[in-house]
Amino acid sequence: SYVPPPRLQTDISGVLLFSYVWSSKEFLGNPSLEAGFIKECESIGLDGIYLSLDGKQIKEFLGTFEGNQRLMRFISLAKSRGLSVQLLLGENTWIYPENRDKLIEIVKLFNRFNSMAGAYGFDGLHLDIEPHALSEWKFERAKLVGFYVETLLEVKQVSEKPVFADIPPGYLNVPFQGKPLAEKVFQISDGINVMAYSTNINYLKRVSSDFYSLGMSYRKPVTIALSVERNLSDMESFYRRSISKLKKTIRIIKSSG
Questions:
Q1: Which in 87, 143, 191, 226 has the greatest CB count within 10 A?
Q2: How far is CA 230 from CA 15, 155, 178, 237, in A?
């Protein structure tokens, strides 16, 4: 069986669990392994997944009729079991003007697939693009922030489905045109996911409260991402804690909002 890669999320308006699926080549395209994957998702209690496709998979599953059919089969199965499915795209260098067309071409393939798939298409587009992880961030932050905002605007303009963006809590302190970058991302996107990788409940409550207020002002959803990654410390990850402990933490965060 296949266990979804560890990175859980919860919508602070309710106890909903999502998982980032960074590698799907182990099961996608194989009906029996897909069924096993969905069963694992159900056993964990997930409500949705962010499904990543590598370059080869994008060409196959979004770029060919046969691949479209196989992807539709998987999404149909997931939705029949109550799982939401968004396409996850994450490559930090896409923000550079010379690379951005690569991202836009993928978004166009995404649109074409969804037009054909109808109810069996993706529910949204999920961007995990992190300019702060680029080496130039320390010295050319303003330039990278500008590239990032331009990229979000282009994707939002092209995508025919809702667009969601991952951001770290620190974007509340990164300026863009006199306001926090987090606020600009809210303006452009259909909702944000805050990568609050901590097990400190007071910190999580503070982050949740700050972003909940921002979300209410824009009437858009906020999702708090909590890590259960094995390679992170106990201060950052819930990996060595139970799902019940994680859900208890989620409820505390929700009540603080």
A1: 87
A2: 23, 32, 38, 7
Residue 256: per-residue pLDDT: 60
Cβ pair 210, 241 in contact under 8 A: no
pTM: 0.88
| Contacts for 51 with CB less than 8 Å, ≥ 6 apart | 21, 24, 28, 85, 86, 87, 88, 122
- Tens of pLDDT, residue by residue over 34-84, are 999 999 888 877 889 999 999 999 999 999 999 999 999 999 999 999 999
> Which pLDDT tens digit goes with each residue over 223-234?
888 877 778 888
Environment class of residue 231 by beta-carbon count within 10 Å: exposed (0-12), middle (13-18) or buried (19+)?
Answer: exposed
How far apart (Å, rounded) are the C-alpha atoms in residues 85 and 61?
15
Q: What backbone torsions phi and psi does residue 189 show, to the nearest 5 degrees?
A: -85, 180
Q: Which two tokens stand for residue 20?
A: 């980032």
Residue 3 confidence (pLDDT): 41
Q: Judge whether 85 and 123 are in contact, CB under 8 Å.
A: yes
- In angstroms, the CA 81 to CA 47 distance is 9
